[in-house]
Amino acid sequence: MARVVVLGAGISGHTAALHLRRRLAKEHEVVVVTPNSKWNWIPSNIWVGVGNMRTDQVTFPLAPVYRRKGIVFHQALATELHPEGSPDLAAPHVTVRYTDPRREGEVAQLTYDYLINATGPKLNFAATPGLGPDANTVSVCTPQHAVHASEELAKVIATLRQGVRQRLVVGVGHGTCTCEGAAFEYAFNVEHELRTAGVRDLAEVVYLTNEYELGDFGVGGMVFHQGGEETTSKYWTESLFRERDVRAIVQAHVEKVEPGVIHYEQLDGSRNTLTFDFAMLLPPFRGVDLTAFDAQGRDITSEMFAPNGFMKVDANYASPVYEDWSAADWPSTYESPRYPNVFGVGIAFAPPHQISTPRTSPNGTLITPAPPRTGMPSGVMGKTVALTIVDRITTGTATAARRASMADMGAACVASAGTGLRRGTAASMTMYPVVPDYARFPGSGRSDKDTFGEIGLAGHWTKYMLHVLFMYKAMARPGWHLIPE
Amino acid sequence: MDHANDDIARALMPSAHTLRERQNLLFQFWRFLALNLRFVTMIFKGEH
Ligand SMILES: Cc1cc2nc3c(=O)[nH]c(=O)nc-3n(C[C@H](O)[C@H](O)[C@H](O)COP(=O)(O)OP(=O)(O)OC[C@H]3O[C@@H](n4cnc5c(N)ncnc54)[C@H](O)[C@@H]3O)c2cc1C
């Protein structure tokens, strides 16, 4: 009997757990440890954040699904990894602290044969003083944050209805943030809501970002080929900003947020302020606070994890200089170099470097998006690692790991720009590969044929369809595994 | 300071025809199929 413990039931961890359970014989145990009782389709939080969806439409309770599937569920937070065991317990194990109301605060140790760290990001609001829903800005990272954002947006719309001008700022709250696509999406959904409410003329919408230029999206921008012409995601995005009359501030690192005022530095070293009536700024991400210990109880956190808290896997972390970076630096098996039975997937793995060109202001502030690890690659990583583990358990040997590098993986991104079955719209993009490979694709680093952008109602239908399909898949309804990651 | 808003001001403005096309149900149904075909191709490219 083997036991596989999955930490985190987000997109990557839940995908891994379902595939493990489907492929492994019943004698093997699949265990999920996650602090929340509900699964959340995070991309649709954008719609909750403008009041177009309820939280129960983007979440469902995990316990009944895991019960039905035969997955052991611990509603708890993993706190420590002991991959060599400890003086008290010889087998590799994790220490968890329960968040389950029936066992709140209780601490336990769970032994494992294989461990998947799929703990995603820590929402690091603390990196920017005054940032976050407990301070001066709103967020759409969790369903609760999104509900709060929609309430604040409703207040601003009510003020606009009284004829008072308002400034709404949407973007990222630190120079090293990722997920610019989500901020972009929320900005255009807000703009759409303002128009629908008939108050657009009194509202100024500003997109505030750490991207060097619009259309970067943390992937260094894209070159699109359409209608026999070459264009870039920069021109394409700027056109949408012009059409929808959204202002932009790029190359910005938010230093602090005071009530109604954002203080930010830009790449040229200038320090500026922007007043606001409503601000949704995404936080920077870091790894969740896991610590690791060897058999003697020595702290090996800095050996297993990068300084940003993300877990080191089979990437090449030894190329500090941009000029030396290559697609081959990116991991493909997600195995810990120290412990081949420990894997890090989704946002939890430490990327070897940015995808966008790194840039620093004259004051030494890094203002460059961190690499996005979006839903599709996260799901693919979860499945890939699950299959590696299944291979090893079923053959009883250390078979070669399956591979899925972001330098050999495409991504489809549908950024909603307003809802409505007839009036909705979205900016749909595909890119292949996510990490540019200049050796395979000289020029832009990506395949001309497969890198593409399009705006229109069809994108909205697709985004809604993905919502329905991924909720269905995550609920493990009949045929779930036929829906790709 | 940056030049984002100057660049936006110079960006191509979609024509009335393009804007109509982006919301036209028939045309968008066709784009929906094309878009999803692209996505499926993308998925299989990454599978080994
Ligand atoms: C607002 C927003 C919109 C987005 N929109 C899109 C989109 O349209 N398309 C797209 O592809 N991607 C989108 N993304 C990105 C997408 O959500 C992520 O790529 C994806 O969620 C990453 O999956 P993950 O499994 O790594 O992390 P998550 O999905 O965040 O899951 C991590 C899980 O680990 C749990 N956890 C945390 N700490 C611990 C611990 N100590 N022990 C155990 N469990 C722990 C968390 O509670 C969570 O359940 C969006 C992100 C945001 C914030």
Fold blueprint:
The complex is a heterodimer of chains A (485) and B (48).
Chain A (H helix, E strand, L loop, with lengths): L2 E5 L3 H13 L5 E6 L3 E3 L4 H4 L6 H4 E3 H8 L2 E11 L10 E6 L8 E5 L2 E4 L3 E3 L19 H19 L4 E7 L7 H17 L6 E6 L14 E4 L2 E4 H12 L2 E3 L2 E7 L2 E6 L4 E5 L2 E5 L2 E3 L3 E2 L8 H4 L37 E3 L30 H21 L15 E6 L9 E6 L20 E5 H18 L11
Chain B lengths: L3 H7 L5 H8 L1 H22 L2
Give a nutshell description of this structure:
Chain A is α/β, with parallel strands linked by helices. Chain A is built from ten helices and 24 strands. Chain A has a domain at about 5-120 and about 285-405: 3-Layer(bba) Sandwich (FAD/NAD(P)-binding domain).
Tally the beta strands of chain A. 24
For the biggest sheet of chain B, the summary is: none
> What is the CATH C-level name of the domain at 3-122 and 286-407 in chain A?
Alpha Beta
The structure class of chain A reads alpha/beta
Query: How much helix, percentage-wise, in residues of chain A?
Result: 10-25%
CATH architecture of the domain at 3-122 and 286-407 in chain A: 3-Layer(bba) Sandwich
**Run of helices and strands of chain B:** HHH
What does the oligomeric state look like here?
heterodimer
Portion in beta strands of chain B: under 5%
State the end-to-end distance of chain A: 28 Å
Bound small molecules, deduplicated: flavin-adenine dinucleotide
| DSSP helix fraction of chain B | over 70%
Strand content of chain A: 15-25%
